[in-house]
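Schema walkthrough. Field components (list of strings):
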Amino acid sequence: MFEAILIAGFGGQGVLSTGQLLAQAGMEEGRHVAWIPSYGPEMRGGTANCGVTISSRPISSPVVSEPTVLIAMNRPSLEKFEHSVVQGGIIFVNSSLIDIRAGRKDVRVFYVPANELAEELGSGKVANNVILGALIELTGVVTPGAVEKSLREVLPPHHHKMIPLNLKALEVGAGLVRGDGPAAAGAG
Amino acid sequence: MAKILMKGNEAIGEGAVRAGCRYFFGYPITPQSELPHYLAKRLPEVGGLYLQAESEVASINMVFGAAGAGARVMTSSSGPGISLMQEGISYLAGAELPCVIVNMIRGGPGLGNIAPAQSDYFQATRGGGHGDYRVLVLAPASVQEIIDLMKDAFDLADKYRNPVMLIGDGVLGQMMEPVELDEEVKPVVLPEKSWAATGRMGRDKKNLINSLYIVPENCEAHNLELARKYGTMAEKEQRWEDYHTEGAELVLVAFGTAARVCKAVVDMFREEGRPVGLLRPITLWPFPAKRVAALAGTARHFLTVEMSMGQMVEDVRLAVNGRRPVYFYGRAGGMIPVARDVYREAGKILTGGADS
Amino acid sequence: MKKVFTRPKSLKDMPFHYCPGCTHGIVHRLVAEVIDEMGIFDRTIAVAPVGCSVFCYDYFDCDAYQASHGRAPAVATGIKRVLPDRVVFTYQGDGDLAAIGTGEIVHAAARGEKFTVIFINNAIYAMTGGQMAPTTLLGQVTTTTPYGRNREINGCPVRMSEMLAVLDGSAYIARVSVHDPANVARAKRAVRKAFEVQMAGLGFTMVEVLSSCPTNWGLSPLKALKWLEENMIPYYPLGEYKVSGDTTPLFRHDSGADGGLSKNDPAEVG
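Field assembly_structure (string):
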């Protein structure tokens, strides 16, 4: 098992903490993990991003230059990183904020209106977790149980009251992939 | 043992605390800020002191005073700040004081930038300041190794009564990886320092912390004594990691972050069944020349990969001593080598299409 | 027979290397006498500077450090923070303290570091060959101001005691002189008080000692003392600039000068 996940968006969209949540969950499940913020030759241009590697083997390089999964939370992130995804990889496009389509034909692309779905749940802040839920359901990179446990580790105690909302967002995302949720993800 | 996800810069701080370090003197600079932030909080919890100095020049001299008083003490900075500390580091070496200095290297020269680099290799391994001296230089490549090497750094500093420098970069400092830590901070038994100048307190002989030897004969004798010590360090403290070097026709040589990228490159070759390995120096001074020389007997080519315009490559060439071609691939100014690009360079060498 | 003059125990039995008429020897002795009289020899630590007094670590028989140029206050900070119950003093000249080490002395004082600084102000760099110091008086001839210190080129002399006294971290700041026996006695009382204030944990303490340098001033020892009295004291008024705790002032500013430049006639040293 090996996934190199690149999460990119505007500063303030919570991409760094989403990555940390994923890394923590991977560690909870006994995987090798690494998390690395905005570094690398390709990581410029007003985007905040982080790379998360989760693997059953020791991780050679924590630098994610060829992601197996890209989560693009805004348009500049999609434009910047689409080309770097490995063949057969996955791109999640936050279609709430991105009005273009991905050009790659050799990867699987999922369009998720993450902000709208999050707003429906009560807070736009959990948009990342809608996509994270979809990612987990699709790839099985970590289990929902590990994510739930990790939320307690990653969120500061005074934000623990937000945990139920986060879990709901993850479930909505998972539902999109299963096709039994409130809204189906548009696969391209 | 607990497994926790930790940032490299924080791991330096926790590693220092676990090693019994209770004093930190420093001046703010990016990209090592998480370390002082961490220690400013953490040291008071264990009865220690975090003191923000007025400059790097003051920091290193506070370290000088605290080290002379027998404490386990450290400072940290990045390129420009480390440059300012060089006079003090020379004094520490001259007065044979143990301490740990962290350099999270950034792009240079001058103000450069705050992105990850390895271009302070010469400064670290050649002494950096004036006079004939060496500091022991450790280059971790993972967050767990940072924790482990911090303990070794303080032990080696005390063992040799010499400054030890731990170098990293923004990638190592800011990345998070799981680390194994004891649940509790265990008390560290520090070695006795009968040489420390702590006030005579009944001692019949005075202790002096000094690097001044005004009579040339005496200063030469001091230099010879230091050289003997450095010789012992060079003989006994070379450390490295072999990664698939057995049977490797091409050996990559890289440290720290560049070594992590090179591991991925080696993986790519090994998946194709091609004989490529990595030698990762863990001590930069003393450079693991023994191991490089041994590999020169079996490998056909060497490729040094650095985040600089080529500094460690000189040590690789010295160790290979003309027996094999030594190639270089580097990115500079805060750029990180991309595994695919290194793979391409290495491929050219394997197929005989590269210039040495 | 009663011994009326003997070497203080805190000084090693060896000849000073200082030039004839240099006042370092007097100040060393005062500090050593105070250490003896207070019974703190065993827990006192000296920090030597770079300058003529670089070897003072050899003369004081207590544990000692030799610091790099200007950094004695940083070194003393490191020592005292590790060993807060020791008595720590630095011994620094005007180039060391008021030029290259300005940052360290100001911030040590601002932090209220609990050590004592013995600051030797002789208005010149002596060890390196009589160059202009930050405390060199206007008009004073040195090897690097052969036409006299010129305000337009070199700016004005720095008054460190006044400067450091305004910082909240300083607890005792005095300027004394050693040009005659009465002033030597006063200087000793100031040194003692500084050590006492340090040991009471009240903050940063400094005694600035106006000193003579006959060699580099080009004067006989006696004339040098006279020159000090007539030229330095008007610009650098003696007195206690900061007194903390319940100690009574030792003396008041006795020169009557307000330290203004206008009162300082350019001095000429041969």
